Amino acid sequence: MTHALIVIDVQNDFCPGGALAVPGGDAVVAPINAMMPEFDAVILTQDWHPSGHSSFASSHSGKAPFDMTEMPYGPQVLWPDHCVQGTPGADFHPDLRTEADLILRKGFRAQIDSYSAFFENDHETPTGLEGYLRSRGIDRLTMAGLATDFCVHFSAVDAAKLGFAVTVRLDACRAIDLDRSLAAALSAMKEAGVTLA
Description:
Blueprint: E1 3-8, H1 29-35, E2 41-47, E3 68-71, E4 74-77, E5 102-106, H2 129-135, E6 140-146, H3 148-161, E7 165-174, H4 181-191, E8 195-196
Parallel strand pairs: 1-2, 1-6, 2-5, 6-7, 7-8
Antiparallel strand pairs: 3-4
Helix pairs in contact: 3-4
């Protein structure tokens, strides 16, 4: 077992009609489903926030979605309430194949957001994914999903820093592109040694 597909946050709230819809977010489903059989393992990540999460604009008086704030771990974008545990918005897109080896939930700690599949936004608190991959003997990762410039970007950079060989399938990702965040993310991924395919 060497090569895993990591499918990032293909959930209803990130698809058209969702609370934090990524433009064309549902367009990633068909290419992701088609590539799943090519891999030794498939891992799905799921944003899984408690209600009142500290990254929600609604938790900060006088703040609006997409405003910035300072958290103990650094700058944080404030988001619309999204992917709240147990709500339909947190469910995977209904057409996504979910027969995965592992479903990893992240962002469930109320006081800290989690873009990366490997670490919370303090870049220190691990999700446990690295240990799972190492124990399975997986050293190559291909990533796809939502959104290119946030959760895919941070996951890919962290994986490369941890020593995995990482490819991001841009045809199976879509971006939010908040204040040119897509260009910055692509540059950061290249700089970290991630292959953009």
